[in-house]
Design goal:
globular, mainly alpha
């Protein structure tokens, strides 16, 4: 099978656009989905353990809480659409998760001692995530960053589970 390339570098061909979309979906998008949702679970689990069940109001800055409340209102005003989830954390973006972890890094360090390195990893995939999320073609380097972050996050989750850390989806 020939390699799939960015359709924008060729004369327009509908089949190339669809092939590019299938390629990005099967090679990259699902990893970003896993990264964001695993981070949501980690944030929820760690902050629940460290700050309590009402961690959202305790650990998240008011400005972000208001932005998320506005996002939630947008969904509730259109009940015919699916919603991201029941908990506020599902209305956060990758950049929001990075901010929450950064502000609360002191609560993450007892459980994830290298949390500062994890914040840097998240920041390395934030822009490539936006490229893919907005249906554009990531560079080879960006795809590799996503691959590494995904693999490393899988290992972190497995390590935490082996250490007895309870991970739960909100």
């Amino acid at each position: 099978m020939p390699s799939i390339n960015d359709f924008r570098t060729y004369a327009f061909d509908r089949a190339r656009v669809e092939a590019a979309g299938r390629n990005i979906g099967s090679r990259v998008y699902w990893k970003l989905y896993a990264i964001e949702n695993l981070l949501r679970v980690l944030v929820h689990s760690v902050l629940t353990a460290q700050a309590g069940a009402n961690w959202w109001t305790v650990a998240v800055e008011p400005k972000l809480r208001q932005q998320v409340a506005n996002r939630m209102k947008e969904y509730t005003s259109r009940p015919w659409h699916s919603t991201p989830g029941k908990h506020d954390v599902y209305y956060t973006f990758l950049s929001d998760l990075s901010k929450i972890i950064t502000v609360n890094s002191h609560l993450f360090k007892p459980i994830i001692p290298d949390i500062d390195q994890w914040i840097a990893r998240i920041e390395q995939v934030r822009l490539p995530r936006n490229i893919v999320g907005h249906m554009n073609w990531p560079s080879t380097t960006d795809r590799q960053r996503i691959d590494v972050c995904h693999a490393d996050l899988q290992q972190l989750v497995q390590h935490l589970a082996s250490q007895g850390v309870t991970l739960s989806a909100p």
